[in-house]
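INTERNAL AUDIT FORM
Audit reference: QA-55
Scope: verify that the stored structure record matches its stored sequence.
Auditor: D.O.
Record contents follow.
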Amino acid sequence: MSPISITQNANVGKRKNRKNVLGCMGTIITNVKTLVKERSKNDEVEELKVEDIIDASKKEVAYVANLLSMSKVQVIMMAACLERCNRHRNDLSVLAETLCINYLRLLEFNDDIQDLKKRGYMRIDKDNNVSLPHEVLDALKCNTAYVKPGNTGLSTIGMMRRLKEMFDRIDNDEMEDNVFLEEALAMIEDNPDTSFSKEFKNLRIRDYCHIETHLFLYLAHLFYNQDDDEINRSQIEDAFASEDNRDSILSWIHRGNLCLMDDSIVEFVNTDGMKSKDYIHIADEVKERLFEDACTISKRNQIPADVIRCDAIVGREMFYGPEEKHQIDVLSSMLSQDRYSGVCESLKSKGLRTGFSCLFYGTPGTGKTETVYQLAKASGRDLLMVDVSQLKSCWVGESEKNIRGLFDRYRKMVKSSPVAPILLFNEADAIFGIRKEGAQSAVDKMENSLQNIILQQMEDLDGILIATTNLTENLDKAFERRFLYKVHFNRPTDEAKMHIWKSLMPELTDNQAEELAFAFDLSGGQIENISRKRSIQSILDGVEPSFELIKSYCSDETLGNKEKMARIGF
């Protein structure tokens, strides 16, 4: 919103020789200043009366009062609000100061002020700070009356947007709880054909006490508008303007005395297979009905970007050394659909955990991640890729919630999928690192908290988790113990490198592939890079690169590559 000065706009109105709202308001403020100056010259009391201001600007006051359907007192109140509150919030005493009237006299016209607030022309918070809504200013700039948006004709999406605006006003101390509930219930009543209103009525939400109804609307707002389905204590505190209401609802939740919970409408979030009192939300089946016509739930059920379908994975031939090949063959056999369920049943019958956690470690480019892809494709399993950077948040408690949410999501995928998917932590050292003993900083404490959550989740895992890492020396020992299978990916043998060269560049002769394999200590990933460079160069030049050029690519690829990795066994 661009700041304005209505005293300047008054001159614009005069130049055009026609009346407009802002010009008239500017004239009113100018006349107030003139009255004060005249009285000070005559040694009279500089304080004015409301009647004095109205008399000094009769034409302007009458014009605005007629156009905006306001009383004359409301017109001069709006003039002061426009002059002082269009950029910042100021309390009512500032309006009195702007009009040069006694503050107590201003309060005599409280009914007029409250009417302006009710009509949406001004907002007044609990500390009597006044602000001017930008939509009001936009209407007055167009020389039209502001009409508060009606409640009818709203969809579920429209009602959620309106709820967001209301809760923003509560957060800014511009709306009391009773006013919020009155407006929200009226909005729901006026839009009976929406799925939200139908389910709201079916659940008889308005029959609950006012603060439980208020809480329900807040949970619905956060779920739809902020995609937040795990609401914690601090968030609930933000939902209410009244401290008494906040304390009451938090106490009821903690003691389990919430009627919404008794009726299974609101519930504690299931964390680590247990109900936690740290987070609450609206029950899933209730949300399904509430937002049936808003497409929210169906949208969540679409395959997101971090889920890779097994049939979308391109099959590739992988080349390993003898030891890696044996280990991968064991895993491949175990993960096959006909063997996996039998293994799980056998473990369960013996009282053993059924989750499979695997660690693939070794130098970069040795095929760790690609092996996970190929195992997924061979066993018909989807992949849930973990983006560690998105899990970590700068906000206290958010990272922990993200981790829990990730495992909750994976558990739901396992339950809803005929074949258990694979949960892949790529470059896992970024989150599976060594825990900090005696952590003091907030960052270190958060890292330790995240790792403790993951350790517990790995203990309770029902499914398949595979982590890949290049830096095993950074791996915490507690994590190492929880990996059932640990596969070390060595740099490929000369024979394996020959096969990789031939698979990526079939036009190479056996002698050329052998020469490249023995002359250059390259990983599979590095050989793939060279293959891509060769393809790009052939497109640019229109001819296939020479063998000598390919060897130069190999020399470029090996510069500075001295990394050595520690082995931790199978």
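Auditor finding: record pair retrieved intact. Confidence is low (pLDDT under 50) at residues 12-17, 298-303, 561-570.
Action required: none
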